[in-house]
Amino acid sequence: MASEAAAPGAAYRSDKEILGYSRYVVLAAAFLAMAVISPYEYAWSSMSAHIGNIYGWSHTQIGWMFTLFVGFESIGTLPGGILRDRFGPRWVTVIGGLVAGIGIYATSLGPSYGPVLVVWCVGSLFAGFVYNTAVTTANKWFPDKRGVAAGLIAGAFSWGSLPFIFPIRAIPKTAPDSVFFNVIYLMAAIIGVVSIVAALFMKDPPKGWRPAGWTPAPATRRPSEHQFTLGEALGTWQMWLLIVSFVLISSAGLAGVSKIVRYSHSFGFTAAAATAAAGGLAITNGLGRLFMGAISERIGRENAMISSYILCGAFLLLTVGAGSQHNQ
């Protein structure tokens, strides 16, 4: 099972007594597992031009790859969550990471579009497994710092692409295709290997476990301690409001993530500016997740969500205005 049975005194054992090491090691492992699947999303704007040029695929075909990644990764978090609840986070992370690596590797198997797309979608689905285990495992060990932990792990999904964005963007147009594919091979290998290593340190705490000396403050207690099943959650209007709001805000953000390089070029910015935009987006997006997670500890989850939605919309509009004024 995912969690150990609640033994007498389990809630009072320290993390080191349970794990043999600090819970911060689990946090670091979850961070790395999340970071290695980041290139699917945040390095895509840098990868896509090479893939399209090498295989002669259209912008529509390239666009569908990213769209299907978003769909399949999102779907993958559900079975990933079901499996991690049943079997724990370790094997789900290992299998998810290995298949996610194969999905990235598939981009080197062209020019036949159909087979590449199928393997890419399977890899995207299993990337959702890793996403789920990384966030949930960290949250289980940090009930006292849930917002910061979730923000840090979510930030890793942005920052993990940085080691690949700049090397890919630095590839000269005259370089042979093998130079780009070498980066893809390395990326796929890193996803698989790091997922296996990270999974070794990922384990759930016993049911009811709390950090020593920590008691939830009355203001932060949940309105209900009932553990909703998936069916029960889907029967509440709050669940559907969360889903709709997440879809809306993600759609706007993901459109920018997937097209940030082409977006920069459309305003006549230099290649260096486009590279800075791709890297800067990954950095600031991750920092925003960490900041909003931390601030939610003080102002509440709902207020943090509302603030982030408003700021996201405002700054997206500002990017259009800045681009129109050719202001980098």
The number of helical elements comes to: 14
Give me the strand/helix succession: HHHHHHHHHHHHHH
- What's the Cα radius of gyration? 21 Å
The backbone outline, from C-alpha atoms, is globular
Structural class: mainly alpha
Roughly what fraction of the amino acids lie in strands? under 5%
Q: State the low-pLDDT regions, or none.
A: 1-6
Total strand segments: 0
Distance between the termini: 52 Å
Helix content: over 70%
Question: Major sheet: size, sense and barrel closure?
Answer: none
**Average pLDDT value?**
84
Task: Explain what this protein looks like in three dimensions.
It contains 14 helices and no strands. With 328 residues, it is mainly alpha-helical. α6 (89-105) packs antiparallel against α10 (177-199). The radius of gyration is 21 Å and the shape is globular.
Secondary-structure map with pairings?
Layout: H1 15-19, H2 23-36, H3 39-42, H4 44-55, H5 59-87, H6 89-105, H7 113-141, H8 146-159, H9 162-169, H10 177-199, H11 230-234, H12 237-266, H13 271-299, H14 301-324
Helix pairs in contact: 2-7, 2-8, 2-10, 4-5, 5-6, 5-7, 6-7, 6-10, 7-8, 8-13, 9-13, 12-13, 12-14, 13-14
Q: What's a concise summary of this model?
A:
By secondary structure, this protein is an all-alpha fold. 74% of the residues lie in helices and 0% in strands. 38% of the residues are buried.
Brief descriptors of the model:
single chain, 328 residues, mainly alpha, 14 helices, 74% helix
